[in-house]
């Protein structure tokens, strides 16, 4: 019972691939994308709802910052859920492609082939899950902003319309990203 188990380098890499942790590069990409998507509605409110940029800038900064955080949170949650589903769906095709690529090398052992298949499957699943998480959450957020702005909160003053539309859209997007079904 008192044994300490040490993982091999390959096992540590495999555990990293299936953890909720994301790389700093991916995190930076999520936050930058979330910032740009959160800032897009500012144009809607300046041009259509006739809000003044300078006098409303404190509201824009605070709400954009909060929605950036919530959208990045949604991206991270969605990517984690989607990565496992995508990995299951692409496993067969990735295996065929990697084995075809390794067909030239007769000396490759079964463990090396399995390792390369797993690595490639994780790479493909990570890329596709990231892309779909960005698309899905951006589309949901922007649709909710338009619905909130033009339908739900249209009778509110532009100040409150902006606040509630953006925060409700970002909050609902983050909330829906925590569900396990996509």
Keywords:
182 residues, mainly alpha, 5 helices, elongated
Total number of helical segments?
5
Tell me the total number of β-strands.
0
Please indicate the percent range of residues in DSSP E strands (runs of 2 or more): under 5%
Shape call: elongated
Helix content: over 70%
Tell me the radius of gyration: 22 Å
Low-confidence spans: pLDDT under 50, at least 5 residues? none
- What's the SSE pattern? HHHHH
Cα end-to-end separation: 40 Å
Arithmetic mean pLDDT: 85
Structural class computed from helices and strand pairing:
mainly alpha
Instruction: Note the main sheet.
Output: none
Could you characterize what this model shows?
The chain has 182 residues and is mainly α. 80% of the residues lie in helices and 0% in strands. The protein is built from five helices and no strands. Helix 2 runs antiparallel to helix 3 and helix 2 packs parallel to helix 4. The two termini are 40 Å apart. The mean pLDDT is 85.
């Amino acid at each position: 019972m008192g044994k300490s188990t040490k993982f091999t380098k390959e096992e540590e890499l495999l555990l990293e691939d299936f953890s909720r942790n994301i790389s700093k590069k991916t995190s930076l990409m999520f936050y930058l994308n979330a910032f740009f998507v959160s800032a897009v509605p500012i144009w809607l409110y300046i041009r259509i709802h006739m809000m003044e940029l300078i006098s409303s800038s404190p509201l824009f900064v605070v709400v954009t910052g909060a929605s950036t955080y919530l959208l990045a949170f949604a991206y991270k949650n969605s990517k984690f859920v989607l990565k496992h589903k995508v990995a299951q769906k692409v496993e067969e095709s990735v295996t065929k492609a990697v084995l075809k690529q390794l067909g030239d090398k007769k000396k490759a052992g079964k463990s090396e082939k399995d390792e390369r298949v797993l690595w490639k499957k994780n790479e493909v699943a990570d890329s596709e899950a990231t892309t779909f998480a960005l698309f899905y959450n951006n589309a949901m957020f922007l649709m909710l902003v338009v619905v909130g702005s033009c339908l739900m909160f249209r009778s509110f003053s532009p100040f409150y319309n902006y606040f509630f539309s953006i925060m409700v859209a970002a909050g609902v997007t983050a909330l829906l990203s925590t569900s396990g079904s996509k």
